[in-house]
Amino acid sequence: SASKNYGLSSWRLGKLTRLTTSDLELTKYYFIDALSYMIKAEKCGRKDGNSVVWLQEVNDHIDTILSDAKESFLSKEHGIALKVTFITQLIESLGDNISRKSTLYLEISELYFKDGVCFLANGDFKKALNSMCECYQPIEEAKRNFTFDVTYNVLIQEISEMEDDVFTHKCIAESMQMKEKGDSIIAQVIKKEENLNVTL
């Protein structure tokens, strides 16, 4: 269909732009455009009764476009804000095709989680707590958007593991926070006692 061909063209332009320029916005535009048209092609193909083989080919293209798009924007040199924004735009491009949304929401949660783990490793429990708290909303969206297909059991397991990891590391960050508060209170008490002894 025209939508499929347009999507393939945008996808190829996205890959070419990624390889030949540093224009992230243009690269992003082509990938999102390609995804939008492929989703449209898949939807129209189902409505028009296209063959299973044709529909599978379109779905394979959608998965490849998503993979290429994420490879372009989820590399280390990009900050978490850009990564989350881009994945959110990919989710929006999927329209009512919810079968892939859960995985993308889970990837957002994983980005925040990894950020939080790095903050914990550096002893910054405040930023770690913020990152862990940011994990919850995309986790809930992942739960809300999954479909009962062949990926259901795997996805549910991944969501459950992510919830457990976030909870554990959030507890660690909160423990570090309480320890700092406790140390501060003890230091204040000791200082008051020292001042009192000097006065006496």
Question: Structural class, from secondary structure content?
Answer: mainly alpha
Number of strands: 0
Our Rg estimate from Cα atoms comes to 24 Å
Intertermini distance: 92 Å
DSSP helix fraction: over 70%
Q: Sum up the overall morphology in one term.
A: elongated
| SS element count, helices | 8
Beta percentage is under 5%
Q: What's the main sheet like? A: none
- Low-confidence regions: none
* Rounded mean pLDDT score: 86
Succession of helices and strands: HHHHHHHH
Description:
- Helices cover 84% and strands 0% of the residues.
- By secondary structure, it is mostly helical.
- The mean pLDDT is 86.
Q: Gist?
A:
This protein has helices at residues 2-20, 24-48, 52-73, 80-93, 101-121, 125-134, 136-145, 152-199. It is mainly alpha-helical.
Write out key terms for the chains shown.
single chain; about 200 residues; mainly alpha; 8 helices; about 0% strand; elongated
Task: Please render the helix and strand layout as text.
Elements: H1 2-20, H2 24-48, H3 52-73, H4 80-93, H5 101-121, H6 125-134, H7 136-145, H8 152-199
